[in-house]
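Sample entry follows:

_____
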Amino acid sequence: MTYSLKDLAWLLKKLEDYGLKGVIVGSTVIGLALGLKRFEGDVDIFVIEPSPLVYEDFYREIAEKEGWELGYTGLGTPRFVAVTPSGAEVTVEFYENIFDYYVPQGIIERSSEKVLGGVTLRFIRPEDYVVLKARAAREGDVEDLRTIAGQVRAGRLRLDRRLIKEALGMMPEEEQGFIRNKLREVGIL
């Protein structure tokens, strides 16, 4: 199901009202950079606080109060299927640095903000997103990167190579060569 920018803002405001602090880190970042008004797929949030692993009850209570379905991601962190006032169902997945899921603190600190209807949306930069995608390098991630490279070639999306290289420098040193090569392979570098 698709959801609107207004649905996204409502959902993030609702989570903020409960005290959740986080940054959008998933494909929604690219949709925002493209100026889309409608989105597909889930919303991935890197949680600053409270920890989705340590304070799982916090997330369970939100789901119960709101009547939202509660599930879990492949990493064992909470996932909601939230229903917005428009009736849109939005899957929200909550992450933190766990196992091989890693977002450097520098990427979180330099995240962007956009105010929409009085709600501040906080999200990582598209340049940081492509570096994280290249690091994951699953088959679907590589396809997503090729699609993003196509958007750049078509002039619909701009990526700053300097910011990509900065993000690359924030990754563990032993992974930088792999990530750089993956970004070259898909045509982003």
Summary: The radius of gyration is 16 Å. The helical segments are 5-17, 28-33, 56-66, 105-109, 126-136, 139-153, 161-170, 173-185. The longest strand covers residues 43-49.
